């Protein structure tokens, strides 16, 4: 397949047939000269874990929240349907009745929460949650009847409607829970509800920790294995049945090949130096990192701990943008991104026509970039270079007055119009966000060094999904990277964005982007 370059990494044309004749030679050369990506070797045990088929994780917090909303909507709909079917034809319409129905539905959700039935572990069960739910629903109606008697509205309420509402509500809730039970069990079999966990420390402490996690009932912790840097007798080959998968350096590579949700240190807090050295390597990962406190003699207040069942832990790093925050960002990207895409289509059509008229070759191409957690993604862009001068390995970045850039290419690169097709990545492929750290080319370099070699903690910017625009870009850190300061500042601003993310922050960056493109484009070539 013919390869192109836009000065920022290897690219692949969307329509190769139209340019095959003029680029065949360059494509063959690019295929031969392409460097092999650096990958760390894993042990056979770690490879076996990485080769397991694993789906995306579903957040228990989001699942429980959605079930609450469904319960409220379902009960409200049942009450309203029965009201319009029976009461309205006899007594006419009354807004007070609708308010009472929604009050009953809201009170039911509150009582279900008080009965502690909004837990994914209970959704897997059957009898236990049913008895709690029916008892709570009966309590809500007793409460409603008592309130109606106190305010002397008992004669205004239809007994037949009330009985039908109660029985229909029970039937709907039970049916819903039976369906939810089968759904949650299916997710559990697929591993979507598991917290895939690795343990650091393959000694007696590690074995005690693994045993404590595995013996807990209804636990969502799935221990994949243990890691330890020691090669002497202190490091066991297995801990309570969990194999040793390698050294701490291997964790980063494993987390890029398969889903890891939690890294749990079994080392004592007294091993401060060792822990700090390991954290410097692992903090770049988009996972939760905790220190187990189950064997520590030093005890803090109970509120200082977070618990994995009965196992106390101390939080060190948390995965950024999770649970409802992730849902909000997804909605922001797809709703706002779709609106921007529709508005930008006329401009994109004109740019595509200008690119085609200016030089032979396709208007669009795909370029390999770093995505979330270092995954390789194809990013859509408008072509801005003569394709016969392609540089698939990004061995030479685009500089000022670069002869490889076309006339139209200079304009669309300066104004970032070449980035508009990335809206397709946001809306349809979901591998980019509207706002986030800019995705760099896989072979992006500062002089002769790859970016991750030039900046300590570079890959920490990949703990979230990359974006079309970002905090670094609107602060002027965009375009050519030819000094240590430029890449260091980008990483610094990206990390600030990750630690301070909010929907309003995304909206602010998005609104500031057009002004930044006009006033801070001196480094964009």
Task: Please give a structural write-up.
The chain is α/β, with parallel strands linked by helices. The protein has three domains: 4-27 and 324-519, no CATH class; 60-189, no CATH class; 194-319, 3-Layer(aba) Sandwich (Rossmann fold), CATH 3.40.50.720. It is 49% helix and 13% strand. The chain is built from 17 helices and 16 strands. It has helices at 20-33, 44-50, 60-91, 95-114, 120-124, 127-150, 159-189, 204-214, 249-257, 272-282, 323-358, 407-414, 422-429, 451-454, 471-474, 484-499, 503-519; strands at residues 4-5, 10-13, 195-200, 221-227, 238-239, 242-246, 262-265, 288-292, 306-308, 311-317, 364-370, 376-382, 433-435, 445-446, 449-450, 467-469. An eight-stranded mixed β-sheet has the order 5-6-4-3-7-8-10-9. Strands 1-2-11-12 form a four-stranded antiparallel β-sheet.
List keywords for this structure.
525 residues, alpha/beta, Rossmann fold, 3 domains, eight-stranded mixed sheet, four-stranded antiparallel sheet, 13% strand, flat, disordered N terminus
Q: Helices and strands in order, then pairings?
A:
Layout: E1 4-5, E2 10-13, H1 20-33, H2 44-50, H3 60-91, H4 95-114, H5 120-124, H6 127-150, H7 159-189, E3 195-200, H8 204-214, E4 221-227, E5 238-239, E6 242-246, H9 249-257, E7 262-265, H10 272-282, E8 288-292, E9 306-308, E10 311-317, H11 323-358, E11 364-370, E12 376-382, H12 407-414, H13 422-429, E13 433-435, E14 445-446, E15 449-450, H14 451-454, E16 467-469, H15 471-474, H16 484-499, H17 503-519
Parallel strand pairs: 3-4, 3-7, 4-6, 7-8, 13-16
Antiparallel strand pairs: 1-2, 2-11, 5-6, 8-10, 9-10, 11-12, 14-15
Helix pairs in contact: 3-4, 3-7, 4-6, 6-7, 11-12, 11-13
